[in-house]
Structure formats: C-alpha cells, structure tokens
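[audit] Reproducing an earlier prediction to check determinism. Same input, same settings, fresh worker. If the tokens differ from the archived copy the diff job will pick it up downstream; this log only records the rerun itself.
[audit] input (448 residues):
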Amino acid sequence: MNYGRTYNFSAGPAMMPEAVLEEIRDEMMNYRGSGMCVMEMSHRSKVFQQIADEAEQDLRELMHIPDNYKVLFIQGGATLQFAAIPWNLMKNGKAVYIETGAWSKKAITEAKKYGEVIVAASSKDRNFSYIPDCSDLDIPEDADYVYICENETIHGLTYQQLPNTKGHILVSDQSSMFLSKPCNVEDYGLIYAGVQKNVGPAGMSVVIIREDLIREDLDPKMPVYMRYDIQAKNGSMYNTPNCWAIYCCGKVFKYLKSIGGLEEMARRNEDKAKVLYDFLDSSKMFRGTVDKEFRSLMKGHQGRRLRQPEGPQERGRPARQHLQRHAQGGRRRPGRVPDQVRGRAQVRHSPAQLSLQGEGYRHLIRHVACVRRAVPPSPQGEGLTRKLGRMRRQFRIPHSAFRIINRRLLSCVFWLPTVWTRRPWPPCGKWAMRSWSSSMSPISWAPR
C-alpha cells in the first residue's frame, strides 16, 4: 500500500520497514487478544515477558551470539554508554581509545572523567577521512580495554579490519552499523548500539557483553541503573524498561530473519551504497570526503564538499560557499535564473566578480558565497553600508537578501576602502565589486 511516505535519510530516528509498521498498526489497540496496547501493559506481565524473551532470542539467532554473552536492553541511548563502559570495565583505571571521528571523540571526553585514557591512534590530522593503522598499537599491559567506534556516522567511515588489541578486550560502538552485516561477536568483549539508527524507535540501547566482564566490585557511588551486573541479574527489568522500543525492535528482528538475515542486509547495503559512491566518483562538482577503502555502507556525510578546482590555486583553497535560493519571495522558478547561467555545470569567478548588482541581480542575489577569510574592520565600513543601502533601494532588492550581503560578506570581507565599477557582464551577468584587498580565495560557484 502507498502511504505517501518520504525517504528519510536522517541518521536517527531512521525509517522502519513498512511491513513492520503495518504489523504494529494492526496490533496497536489489542495486542494478540490481551485487550491492551503494548504501551499500556505491565512490564512484569507474562505477555510482555514473552515479547522481551522473543526479541532477545531473535537477536541471538541473527548475530549468532554465544551463550556466554548477555544481551541487555538499556534505556538512555548509546551516549549513556560513554560513561557506563569506563565505570563498569575500568579495573586498573586505564583504557586505550582510537579516535576516528566525532563519536569516538565524545567517548574519549567522557571516559577521561573515570580514568586515564590513552589515544593510541587518530585520524584527526586529515579531518577523520581514514582509519589509522591499528595493526601494531602501543597498548599498555595494564590497559583494561581497547575502544573503537566501528562506524562513524558523521564522518562516514568504517573499519574494514578490526584493531589488533594484543589480547585486550575490544569494545565497539556499532550504533550506526548495527545489524547491517554479519558480525562475529566472539571478536569483541562488548558491543553496544543505540537502536534508533537501524532497528527501532529512539530511547534504548542494546548492550552485548561477555559474562566474565560483568563485575560486582564497582564504585558504590555509581548509579545503580548503569551497573551491568544489576541489569543482567534482572533481565534488563530492574525498573520499567522501554517496553515500546523492545517490542518494535523485536518486530524488526523477525523481519530481518524473514528476508534472509544479515547476509541479505549486507548485500542490500552494498547495492545502495554503490549508487551514491558511483555518482560521487563520476561527479565533476562533488567528491567524497573519505578514502575509498574506508567508506561506510551506512549513513555518513559523504560528498558534502565541492571538488577542488583543477590547476594551481593563486590564493589558497577555494572558499566553501553555501549557494542560496533565488530571491523574489523565495519562489523557485527556473525563469528567475538568466539564460547564460541555466544549464552551466560550473562557473568560476574571481573575487572581483562577486555578484553585487545589475539587471538580473535580484534573481541571483541569494547565490551569495560565504567567504572564509576575514579582514579587520575599518572606518570606511559605515560609508560602504550607506552605499549598499542606496543600491538596495535602486534595484528593489528584498531586505532578506540584503541582510545576507550585509552579514555574510560585508561583516567578513569588505570592511575596506572599496570602489565600484560598471563593467561588461561575466558569463552569468552581474556588476562587479572590486576591493583594494585581493586576499580572498577564488570562488567555485554553480547554480542549482
């Protein structure tokens, strides 16, 4: 059935299979003759206990989880585990972390509150565009565990080979890749994932931990709810769990089993990722930000940068501008763009050719580049503001568009003595603003 649904590419909460949502809808008012919705029933009831037991068993079958591992359904999301992991696993007060992106950085920051954190490898030097070599890490003998974020959602990279932990426990954050491909659980001491990215509604994490790592000799000041031993003894029901999330995740587990398991999911993810990466690799405008061998098959911010212009750059790197929509009340009609512009793949202009007036100016005014380089203010700024005001009235530029220039360009770049010259149009047709300063980077610009 067509529900008019949109494709949701959000990192989380993410889309759920329609077949699962339809089944949840059908059971909403009266779950299997119980006379109530799952959201209404007691977590101590036999009906819900069966739901939780089936969810755990289906997950064990999907991932082939050995019997010596516990499966915990814990409220709070994956971020809560940034603190729970060092608090539960740090015996000697020392752990090794590998920094590969935003989420591993946050985990490092949190773990430093509970003990010594050694960053054994990092890809920060190249803005987390690769996974560092982890074949021979400098790991102290008394380190309690080695921590990785196996798939970095924001930077869009993933491990193709697990680190050599030299016999130490491996802890992995799999939030954005959970159940996306087969996983050998025995390679890890602990796996955790926030369910909202791949398998269910927000508000819960799945923690898979080897039984020998569950300790009772913990800091007495530690919150009871964050203790893995308490959660394991009570079957994840020390208090009222996230019953709705457990129920929905259980439906997704059954769905994954019905379509062929994690092997089938890996094949589908590879096919979907190939469409995106083939486009980026063939594009003359966009490029992927991650080295090809470390590209994630899951959600990641890939291809967000403009491709670097070919040839030598006279003034450094190109500015990373944000192309604005057309003016005139925000209407998006192709006729608002001059014929010389429409259809061009890419047009580059020097700083002297930034669009700042002329016939057709109000059609292009929102294609304003955010120039990165700032210059000190000068007394001439006030006069320049008045001149821009006269231009706005003369060419009937909307206030909203004028504010873009005043805030984004004037405040960052043009607080300098400036002359205005009328000159022939460049390919897209504009006036030119010439600054006595030529310190700006060239602009790469392309119309939408």
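[audit] rerun output stored. Observation attached for the diff report: The mean pLDDT is 77.
[audit] end
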